[in-house]
Design brief:
Layout (H helix, E strand, L loop, with lengths): L1 H16 L7 H30 L9 H28 L11 H4 L1
Helix pairs in contact: 1-2, 1-3, 2-3
Amino acid sequence: MIGILLLYFIGKAFFTLKEQSKKGKWGYAVLGIVTYFLGSMLGGVAVVLAMEVWEPGSTDAISERLLEIIALPFGLLACWLLYKQLKKQQTKPHFDKGEVLDADLIE
């Protein structure tokens, strides 16, 4: 149940980020959720590989639930980094190709 709420809030945050423009809102929500899953998966794999290198055979005793809890911060970190990057791109001023910055000097 907590996982579903977490996915809801991640999707909602990305959805509201793109809410100012009229297209691609659902795509951003799905992108946020996919980023969470990829970050969790890569973080979990990195933790398991590090544990196996450090002490071989130590991952046999870890339950799947514990591994999910260990991988959770990696997914949240991936979502947060992507969110910050998208927000930064959205607030950056965009110029038209024909727009001249010092148009009053050309006159």
